[in-house]
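User: Design a sequence. Structure:
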């Protein structure tokens, strides 16, 4: 049987669904005082009042059960068969996990679905609207037809914070026009080991670079809290707090993962400098509305290694450091069923996590059980009502700031811009600026237009491979899964004399240049960990393609389409030019823009490139730092297309 997390992530956990069926369908409602029944003149419904006053008025009217309902988030697939659960439980939020999409995966299909759920929330006594969350991590990537941008690591290579802001603003527009008002992005983790399956979700290995790219939060939310209510902005989530990119290889205990959801073994000073710093910026400079604690654990060296604490159970980090010391006034949302990784029975897990400071609980397939358990914990005095009130106050604040009480249904006015030429042009520019030229012997690049070009490698003409994970589905997939341009399409836009052979078996004689595209197939999270069916080494097919083409054609250019650097040390001498293309998304033509000199190469490595897999972890500032390519490396070219 698949690991429960994997099964539920794709919405196929029959065991979880059976658990729901076994729970009471209706939790006994608490009596409502007559003077707390809302009227049209209730203060919380008055948009002229300040948000804190509206929150106070609404909170005063709520029963304990209604408060706990606001703290509960369910997967849409878990309620779809009985949408009245939203009303009965008073759910505060729903989400779409990766690949959890409406049957009609179109802008209208999405908006109609979200609005249908919203109508059930508005049927509750207090008519508190739903907050709908989604993983828009490189565009509105669950929606077929959306603009799909390069993943974060590629954006780190651009060193262009303004472009990141523009990208995320477009993502906000495309997402909100289809219903969701909240995105689980950006990931502001600092990746310190390329063996991590989430490497491409990070902007880089240096916290200062990650901080520089946090302009994306502003792109999502706007410059002012008042921007949140506009159809051009969404609530952002900084994730995964904190240290998920800094876990030690081999410490993960989740299924067959090797490093994802593992243990960060560090001291408090180093943790603050490397792992915590981006969250301080997210809170104090950008006012991020929500933060998602990590699946990973922390093990402080100061008190001896061997007693790790799950991040979701760390009152020190969630409450003392983040809320009190850093001043975070948004709300904390747990990751997918993360509560259930805490030691103890379910009641202990819930109690520990809420008392540590968690505000909203992503319990995808166990929302009824969560509500029932939390009620019992409060009534038994093991969770204080003041902690519940604090959590609900933070959640309601976000809903008021988003304008959901005035406009709960989808504003579809910008739906026509989804996947527009204008939006794709920005993505294409992002692709071009992210390309990193690592080697360029004999001025192999830029290429001549209309030259005889031989292209090899399956990823040259596979938009699924170039988009990577988190594209339409959680893990992504190879093939023609989204509209856009492949790298081969882009090359053909610049030359009519192109031969393409995925396995380099077609004749090569007479070609001026060989372009070999190597790389990884899509994966996400711990399923992409090295040692969990993955390696940093090139595949045998990719090695064979490089060997054949570079031996037979005078000028050999190799492009790496991957979520992290791969080991090319032994084959680099045979290459005339080597380019890191990352995971460019839907606009592969942006790669060709720099290959042919329409745009210059300006990208720089956001991570250190190792000589071998055994060199990991290796990061700038390490002693005996001797990588294949150092952090920040990237050759430059000028604009200027050569023609024959």
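Assistant: Done.
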């Amino acid at each position: 049987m698949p690991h429960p997390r994997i099964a539920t992530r794709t919405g196929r956990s029959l065991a979880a669904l059976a658990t729901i069926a076994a729970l009471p369908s209706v939790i006994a409602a608490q009596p409502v005082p007559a003077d707390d029944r809302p009227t049209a003149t209730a203060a919380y419904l008055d948009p002229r009042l300040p948000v804190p006053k509206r929150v106070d008025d609404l909170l005063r009217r709520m029963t304990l059960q209604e408060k706990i309902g606001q703290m509960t988030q369910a997967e849409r697939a878990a309620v779809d068969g009985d949408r009245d659960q939203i009303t009965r439980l008073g759910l505060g939020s729903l989400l779409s996990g990766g690949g959890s999409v409406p049957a009609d995966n179109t802008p209208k299909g999405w908006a109609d679905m979200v609005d249908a759920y919203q109508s059930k929330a508005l049927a509750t006594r207090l008519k508190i609207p739903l907050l709908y969350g989604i993983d828009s991590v490189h565009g509105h990537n669950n929606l077929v037809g959306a603009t799909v941008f390069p993943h974060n690591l590629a954006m780190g290579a651009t060193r262009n914070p303004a472009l990141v802001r523009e990208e995320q603003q477009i993502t906000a527009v495309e997402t909100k026009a289809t219903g969701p008002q909240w995105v689980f992005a950006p990931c502001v983790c600092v990746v310190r080991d390329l063996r991590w399956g989430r490497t491409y979700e990070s902007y880089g290995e240096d916290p200062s670079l990650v901080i520089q790219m946090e302009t994306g939060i502003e792109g999502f939310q706007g410059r002012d809290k008042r921007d949140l209510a506009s159809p051009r902005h969404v609530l952002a989530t900084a994730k995964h707090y904190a240290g998920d990119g800094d876990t030690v290889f081999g410490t993960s205990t989740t299924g067959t993962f090797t490093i994802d959801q593992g243990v960060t073994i560090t001291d408090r000073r180093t943790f603050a400098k490397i792992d915590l710093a981006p969250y301080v910026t997210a809170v104090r400079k950008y006012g991020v509305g929500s933060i998602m604690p990590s699946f990973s654990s922390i093990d402080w060296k100061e008190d001896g290694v061997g007693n790790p604490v799950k991040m979701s159970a760390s009152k020190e980090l969630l409450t003392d450091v983040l809320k009190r010391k850093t001043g975070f006034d948004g709300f904390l949302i747990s990751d997918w069923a993360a509560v259930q990784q805490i030691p103890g029975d379910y009641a202990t897990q819930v109690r520990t996590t809420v008392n540590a400071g968690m505000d909203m609980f992503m319990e995808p397939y166990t929302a009824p059980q969560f509500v029932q358990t939390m009620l019992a914990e409060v009534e038994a005095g093991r969770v204080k009502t003041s902690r519940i009130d604090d959590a609900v106050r933070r959640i309601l604040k976000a809903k008021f700031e988003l304008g959901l009480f005035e406009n709960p249904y989808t504003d579809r006015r910008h739906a026509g811009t989804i996947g527009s030429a204008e939006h794709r042009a920005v993505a294409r520019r992002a692709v071009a600026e992210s390309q990193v030229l690592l080697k360029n012997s004999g001025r192999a690049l830029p290429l001549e237009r209309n030259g005889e070009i031989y292209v090899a490698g399956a990823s040259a003409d596979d938009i699924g491979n170039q988009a990577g994970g988190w594209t339409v589905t959680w893990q992504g997939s190879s093939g023609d899964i989204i509209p856009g341009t492949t790298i081969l399409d882009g090359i053909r836009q610049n030359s009519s004399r192109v031969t393409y052979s995925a396995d380099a078996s077609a004749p090569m004689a007479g070609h001026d240049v060989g372009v070999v595209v190597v790389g990884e197939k899509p994966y996400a999270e711990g399923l992409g960990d090295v040692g969990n069916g993955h390696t940093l080494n090139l595949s045998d097919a990719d090695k064979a393609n490089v060997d054949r083409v570079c031996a037979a054609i005078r000028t050999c250019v190799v492009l790496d389409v991957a979520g992290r650097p791969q080991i090319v040390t032994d084959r680099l001498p045979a290459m005339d030019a080597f380019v890191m293309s990352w995971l460019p998304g839907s606009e592969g033509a942006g790669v060709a823009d720099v290959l042919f000199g329409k745009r210059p190469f300006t990208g720089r490595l956001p991570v250190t490139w190792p000589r071998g897999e055994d060199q990991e972890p290796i990061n700038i500032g390490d002693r005996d730092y001797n990588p294949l390519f150092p952090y920040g490396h990237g050759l430059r070219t000028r604009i200027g297309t050569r023609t024959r």
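The longest strand covers residues 513-519. The radius of gyration is 25 Å.
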